[in-house]
Amino acid sequence: MNTTDRTRTAVAAMLRGFTYDGRRALRVEALDAPDTSDRILALGAPAVGDAELPLDLADDFVGPSARAWNSFVQEHGGLPDIVTVEGAGAFRVKHSGRTSGDQHQSGEQPVAAERGSTMHGRIAVVTGGAQGFGLALAEELAGGGATVALVDLNLDGAEASAADLNARFGEGSAVACAANVADDDSVAAMTDKLAARFGGFDLFISNAGVLRAGSVLSLSVKDFSLVTDVNYSAFFVCTKHASSVMRLQDAGYRARVAAAAAAGDAKHTASLPAHYTTDILQINSKSGLKGSNKNGAYAGSKFGGIGLVQSFALELVEYGIKVNAICPGNFFDGPLWSDPDRGLFVQYLNAGKVPGAQSIDDVKRHYEKQVPLGRGCTGADVARAVYYVVDQVYETGQAIPVTGGQEMLR
What we know:
Blueprint: H1 3-18, E1 27-31, E2 42-43, H2 53-56, H3 59-76, E3 82-85, E4 89-94, H4 111-115, E5 123-127, H5 132-143, E6 147-152, H6 155-169, E7 174-178, H7 184-198, E8 203-206, H8 221-262, E9 278-283, H9 296-316, E10 321-328, H10 335-338, H11 344-351, H12 360-368, H13 379-391, E11 399-402
Parallel strand pairs: 2-3, 5-6, 5-8, 6-7, 8-9, 9-10, 10-11
Antiparallel strand pairs: 1-4, 3-4
Helix pairs in contact: 1-7, 1-8, 3-8, 5-13, 7-8, 8-9, 11-12
């Protein structure tokens, strides 16, 4: 993106921060041009000649903009329909219009029905969202009233999954976006695009991952590097760019509250938290809690991911960003295990990894017996942990097992 586009992205995130009420913010939509029939607020634009300013949002822009915003809201008795930022484009600020999961069509109630309105009206990003755990989580979040961005290298698959979610939960439930999570430029473009479209996001789930099992004696360096790039390095890349947007939302929020306090407006400052609270989640694995025989590349990448989670949590708390990991057990119903051609059940049967197994069902039963609760992990199981992490504002840097008792914290 050029400097002008990044300015537009940064201003959109700041504006969304202006609307945060301590729990959620309204959507900010970038427009090609303002509609002059709607109310318009002009804010002084940052100088677009400085490539660093769009990300830093210097005080000489944020402070005056926050004061102008507060004055406008007070004068008109509510939020404007359109905000025009001179030099950075036009934006519409509005409620999402999404209703929470009463359109869910599966036999099982979505987790959202248990957790109330935690995700209603929020913006969530799920990498690896076209299938598997990512899609299962996106389904639960969309059922709870969130707008979910399905990010995947497979754009056709993401678009098909987004269309399905929109048909089931209402238009605006999901969008698709292409990205290679291990590529810095690709992730930067993806986060900029989503921030410009929605004004930012509240929850970023780094879920995309790959598995290449093999002995340390025979696994190729190419396969080891692929697993490390996608499962470990990509979490760094995604956190780098997601937190940049989230930091801007927090900056806008804090500037608005500070401007209101300075003006003596207690209504805008009473009982408000110190930060715009957002969440970055890594979908890790039980293999991040215990080594995995002949699967060292995968386990090592997941162990490393927990180290990143703890380190990022310490750093990003300054901006109200919580960083946690969820460590699921085996998702037997997903393509990693159940793909009829390349799934692990087929691979393990053909390799004779399970002594005496004559069928895929024999292999599946063998692995289910290793779980005290007797079954594999589901998307709903992990979604409950996601809702817990988002609800729990007093927790960061944790690795939460969802393994049916197979792996326990020590």
